[in-house]
């Protein structure tokens, strides 16, 4: 089977990233799977069949350029780009006094400057075709900076700023840009350690997140959503 369009998922692991890849694969996309290491993504690419694994470090402009150019030259035109960098690895509560600026800079780079650099390679083609979607995965910390959550909130705010600036510039040019805020714990092995008694509806399920991205991509232009907040029904907010 030949494929006429590509979905890039930047930040692919066994949680949301993997679920998004599976969802767009089922929609008939060739899927470009991006992660720093390719162990999981190569296995997922083999499982899906219509996918290719690429190594990409969103904190390195050289790595970003190499991955983007490889995708452009080897894959069908890019119609969807999902930035899903972060996850539980960046969930590090603690006092601002204990944050090492050098570590924070790396996280901010991977969550904002890296996606900016990657999008600069992909956006021109979307604008030329007047079709495409760029999505960003956000979190509760995208909307507020809480005490002892500075390490989480600062890069999340940067991601939202990039998404909103991109949306205001490129939505009028035919590119749907959306920021999906996950306001709750996402199901994972680590989350299960924190909430061992939680039921399936008490945590956000990765497949449900992926379904939202498919829904956003298929929205008609007359009702495009920029920001969507999803949370479990029992979540306090």
Give your account of this protein's structure.
This protein is of the alpha/beta class and 237 residues long. Helices cover 43% and strands 17% of the residues. The protein is built from 7 helices and 7 strands. It has a 7-stranded parallel β-sheet, sandwiched between helices. Strand 5, helix 5 and strand 6 form a beta-alpha-beta unit. Helix 1 packs across helix 7, helix 3 packs parallel to helix 4 and helix 4 runs parallel beside helix 5. It is globular, with a radius of gyration of 17 Å. The relative contact order is 0.14.
Nutshell version of this structure?
With 237 residues, this protein is of the alpha/beta class. Helices cover 43% and strands 17% of the residues. A 7-stranded parallel sheet has the order 3-2-1-4-5-6-7, with helices on both faces.
Average the pLDDT over all residues and give the rounded result: 94
Q: Approximately what portion of the residues adopt beta-strand conformation?
A: 15-25%
Q: Portion of residues in helices?
A: 40-55%
Strand and helix order? EHEHEHEHEHEHHE
